[in-house]
């Protein structure tokens, strides 16, 4: 498999966690979002791979091109079911997916590079951007804190879908100086992930395109 | 089942489509997001149901409370598998979920009422808001147009997950005066949905809380 990825894209980071949890090998194809003359993601070559011009994209072992991290992770879990990223129980799966959706829908898109760039074009400065980013991260993590469990990873002793979304969001919170003090459960999950080989392997600090 | 819903919330509208496609009965519990003194969604009574204070939320027949429309729709498809909202093939499912995620992650959260309210607090006027909204809807629908098929609904003769996300987004595009001229495939799907009983039943014009 080939993963079109950018080291500190949290959506790429989620898919890297899922691949690592399942022990799946892949080749990283770095897509630099921050080239001054326009990111590699906006070039025709990459737009032919992903018409959205976003990362990640996954080329499967059968040569199929998949986009959108939630769709890619569900694909990986269906195609390579062991170890599972979701519980078997329908209601438990819904709770796990709800945490993923809070982060994937209501937090990250509000502060990713596209959104930050449009806010800059609209005249907002870096201080205002940090305020904007902090608003959405705090709202989302505040909800997640109430939904996850009291021990282990988000929903038990083993990491899964919710953790694959939460840990990259914690990384973004730290990057943008958003306090995690109000979220002891999230801090507990983050501390466990920091010691887990799959999460370490997937971390932005450990990628081929890490500066 | 009980669905906590608001007539023109596109996330509620998605779940209403999924319920209608499966022929599932439910009681609508209207949550008015636009009460002048603070939406019903921000009251303690509703925050106990959904700590995010967003709609929709679903109370299942077993009394379980589920939140986040992507998670609720996947639950419905797993718990009530007929008719299916996703193909059986893993890659096809990934393409269907990718369209849902483009809309659910990269379009709708950028223009929902929470985001509009924060932009207003930041001093942006209604003209600027329409520009902001149009930017994200056009970007997302432009990508979706390239990903869906040449006939029928998004991915074939029968409607499914991608359609349940796309049709509410088309409704939002019309509400916010975003042109659909560049998207003939999307227009075709919208025309089919306008004649389909499940989509008609789920439409914002036909809800108990429609003004």
UniProtKB/TrEMBL annotation, chains A, B:
Q: Which InterPro entries match?
A: Glutathione-S-Trfase_C-like, Glutathione-S-Trfase_C_sf, Glutathione_S-Trfase, Glutathione_S-Trfase_N, GST_Zeta, GST_Zeta_C, GST_Zeta_N, Thioredoxin-like_sf
Annotated GO MF terms: glutathione transferase activity; maleylacetoacetate isomerase activity
Residues covered by the GST N-terminal domain: 1-84
Instruction: Could you list this entry's UniProt keywords, alphabetically sorted.
Output: Isomerase
Domain of life (superkingdom): Bacteria
Quote the SUPFAM superfamilies the UniProt record gives.
GST C-terminal domain-like (SSF47616), Thioredoxin-like (SSF52833)
Return one Gene Ontology term, BP aspect: L-phenylalanine catabolic process
Xref: Gene3D superfamilies: 1.20.1050.10, Glutaredoxin (3.40.30.10)
List residues of the GST C-terminal domain.
89-211
| GO cellular component terms, A-Z | cytoplasm
In terms of PROSITE patterns, this protein maps to: GST_CTER, GST_NTER
Q: Would the keyword Isomerase turn up in this protein's UniProt record?
A: yes
Q: Return the similarity comment.
A: Belongs to the GST superfamily. Zeta family.
- Can you name this protein? Maleylacetoacetate isomerase
